[in-house]
Amino acid sequence: MEPRGLLALVLHTHLPFVRHPEHPSFLEERWLFEAITETYLPLLARFHRLADERVPFRVTMSFTPPLLAMLADELLRTRYLRHLEALIELSAKEIERTRWEPPFHRLALFYHHRFTTARRLYVEAYRRDLIGAFRSLSERGVLEPIASCATHGYLPLMETQPAAVRAQIRIGVAAFEHAFGRRPTGFWLPECGYQPGHDAVLKECGIRYFLTDAHGILFGSPRPKYGVYAPAICPSGVAAFGRDMESSKSVWSAEEGYPGDFHYREFYRDIGFDLDYDYVRPYLNGDGARLHTGIKYYRITGKTDDKQPYDPDRALEQAAGHASNFLFNRGKQAEHLSSVLGRVPIIVSPYDAELFGHWWFEGPDWLEFVIRKAHADQPDVRLISPADYFERYPTNQALQPSLSSWGNGGYSDVWLTGANDWLYRHLHKMAERMTDSARAHRHPDPLRERLLNQMARELLLAQSSDWAFILKTQTHTAYAYRRIHDHLARFSALEEAVRRGRVDEGWVAGVEEKDNCFPFLDYRVYA
Asked: By the 8 A CB rule, do 50 and 143 touch?
């Protein structure tokens, strides 16, 4: 039976490259460890279970090169396992501590089982190779992986340095090929930041489509005949898919969407802050500061400090109900759109993957319910990937999308504010100097080649949009400042060494060990 609508669920997976071998443990490395435990492993387990049960589905996931590099890094793999074993130990202590508090004792058992299951999956099922686990889902036809920029650099604010834009895209595609063994079809523009003309670079790399926010399509020229419910074909021939705001808001909004339901787990109440300091201190970071452990005993309850104990079974029921509601709304949406448009609409719903499991604890369960119910409970909406759409509708409207981004304001507001605007003069100058150096040394000696490749890595890491975002939101600002200044300093020292032709090789090796992403990188991409 022909569906009334096609639904493309797109999960964007990204974390900044954080790796500090010079320290035995490092606070910001926990960003990766928490994402693995709370998001990536739960999603993998559910997707593999659905595939094993032959439930037909298609989900699209973007994978940024910094995340791929960290998932493949042996040091971080070892540290993650150590982190997970500490959580297993802490949850075992919690089982004993809460023995006479039934609601919390049950939750302590719940978390202990959750962490031991995560360890079994990571070590035994996936053999510490999460990239391989995602790749197997792609090979089974249920997951469509797509690429992104080298370090999630925000492209519209690189427009003055075209070589930097090209390098971010080309290295991103190369990193995808290195991880998945094939060329990507789709591309996630960091922060959905689109600048007219950048699609031509995507075309050079064999990309067929990218994603943008709704107003990038709606304010395109000429006016889009189908709104955001069909792809727009750019002048280069690459297609742009626009975000559907209605389906997106119901999931990502804590105020108006599902994650704010009072039965779901409260993110901000964690035993790392609630329990006696001496008890939790062995499980905190080396500096002793309190932090989230991942063991949280309360539900949202409401806008009150009097939080009630979390009930996983009640939360699971709520997730099932919200999945039904989501699909019902998509069915009604598709019914209306198909009658107006005269063709089957595609509803593109992109989200940060880390929303599912980390910020919204029940998110992976909700997603599994959506997939199962889309297959078994209703005929109106079918899950596809954007790439699948072209098989059904190969001919689409040609138009030029407008400059746009997601985030507050929709036009780069988050990444260009009074808190972070000072950064770009340095990034532009670094890109200019990198381009000049690459053109001046097309056939260097082996030492200079190492130096030039490392210069490119330092530039790319400095360009990460995460630093501007952190400076805007005023979270972890000391770390963001340190990273920016470290990459600037290393870049300048490497550039000076290229000019002089000599350098302390021990120092170079240390820099290469610390910022070791992109082993395949060739600095000539800037030439």
From this structure: no
